[in-house]
Amino acid sequence: MQTNLTPPSVPVRKASPWLEKLGPGVITGAADDDPSGIATYSQAGAAFGYNILWTVLLTYPLMVAIQSISARIGRVSGHGLATNIRRHYPVWLLYSAVILLLVANTINIAADLTAMGAAVNLIVGGPTRLCTVGLAVFSLVLQVFVPYKVYVRVLKWLTLALFAYVGVVFAVRITWPTVAIRTVLPHLSWSSVYLTTVVAVFGTTISPYLFFWQASEEVEELQAAPDQHALKKAPWQALVNLRRIGSDTRIGMAFSNVIAFFIILTTAATLHAHNVTDIQTSSQAASALKPIAGQFAFLLFSLGVVGTGLLALPVLAGSAAYAMAGAFRWRNSLELEPRLARGFYAIIVLATMVGLALGFTSIEPIKALFWSAVINGVTAVPIIVLMMKMASHKDVMGKLTVSGSLRLVGWLATGVMGVAVAGMLILLAV
After folding, report:
1. pLDDT in tens, 24-83
2. Residues 388, 406: Cα–Cα separation, whole Å
3. CA distances from 178 to 42, 47, 91, 181 (A)
4. What do you get for the CA distance between the two ends of the chain, in Å?
5. Which of 72, 161, 188, 268 fits a 20 to 30 Å CA distance from 179?
6. CB 400 within 8 A of CB 237
7. Could you give the CA distance from residue 219 to residue 207 in angstroms, rounded to a whole number?
8. Given this structure, which CATH class describes domain 24-429?
9. Closest among 114, 119, 152 to 26, alpha carbons compared
10. Does the keyword field hold Heme (predicted)?
């Protein structure tokens, strides 16, 4: 296979609208604040108030580094994470990562669908289960039958739903000087509950499914542009693409972390301040807000759950499908018709339908949300180690291996996640 392409003579392109320049990074960042993430952030804010806000400041640079690295792996190599693991690492490692991702994502889908159905019920009434089924079917139709080029535009506009959580803050009373002090100088606790909450926040913010999704979406973007090639084979395209990845990811992760900050802030200023410290679901958080912060805050919070759920479902199901397809060498692309990528779309449908079914059993997936976030935090550590190894591997990245500050912060993220997990396990064992 040819590895050195001669730069073709192409006309200078006009600058595209700013929204067109934003893509996988923004969608990934917004999908991070899904209903399960909302539940985790709400629980953190309700339980510990402003003293948990510092976690969002810490996760931002770490999240930017890790997601930038995953995006670079996809764009430079031309393959998603699972395919690269299969090509360069033992098969048991590949299957372990893929199975963990599939199980965690299916539980998240179950929780997200249940939360979305409950939110619709809170707003307009009607049978909750019927609302949940309708949302699942609607999401599947979009994923399976709408081409990627069109669908990605829908996902970009759905990110606006997250501004609902900024709006909620203006409907409640906030003591901003206290917020600023507690964000920078929090009252820390070394209890197992506090550290478990920190790991849950890290896990729902720096989640393995986001790594797989952003790398695969960079491959989708690559395949959707006939004049673009994997950067290790077309290094002259590296400067503009790596700059785009950097800005796209920084904006996307800032978006994600700002919204997470506002969700924690809202529940801290309302629920925690009124001694409501145990929140298990995002819809429960919305209901609890109503008598405290009023109808407007309640509606914004509830609508945000539905909007972010519609954004997150394809990311959860899609990242699992990309991982499975990469592991088993199936054709995979949201741009392909279902008949041309049957295995890929089968995983999307299966993960969504199993998640839907879980919500109708005696198993309470919503209660598992917090621990699902903890599991994500634990499993993220070895997957990040694998990513850092791949990003430094010349067989994967060619001459565009990750170096300098990006590599340093990537390993720092690995260390921070590892220390948090280790501290939690030690305190749980005591």
Report:
1. 777 777 677 777 777 788 888 988 989 999 999 889 999 999 999 999 999 999 999 999
2. 10
3. 19, 17, 51, 5
4. 56
5. 161
6. no
7. 19
8. mainly alpha
9. 152
10. no
CB 259 within 8 A of CB 282: no
Other beta carbons within 10 angstroms of residue 403's beta carbon come to 10
CA distances from 130 to 113, 123, 177, 253, 298 (A): 11, 14, 45, 34, 22
Residues 6+ apart with CB under 8 A from 116: 35, 131, 132, 135, 305, 306, 309, 310
Amino acid code (one letter) for 124: V
**Residue-wise DSSP of 372-409:** HHHHHHHHHHHHHHHHHHHHT-HHHHTT----HHHHHH
* Segment 220-278, tens digit of pLDDT: 888 878 888 889 999 999 899 999 899 889 988 988 898 889 889 988 888 888 887 77
Say what angle helices 54-77 and 81-88 make with each other, to 10 degrees. 60
**pTM strictly above 0.70:** yes
369 token code pair: 């949300």
Give the up-direction half-sphere exposure of residue 367: CA atoms within 13 A in the CB hemisphere: 3
Distance CA 160, CA 153 (A): 12
H helix or E strand, kind and range, residue 46 = helix 35-48
The token pair that represents 53 in the structure block:
């806000």
Question: At 270, which amino acid appears?
Answer: T
Q: So where are the chain's domains? A: 24-429
Question: Cα separation of 322 and 307, whole Å?
Answer: 23
Residue type, 303: L
Tens of pLDDT, residues 73-108: 999 999 999 999 999 889 998 898 898 888 888 888
DSSP state of 225: -
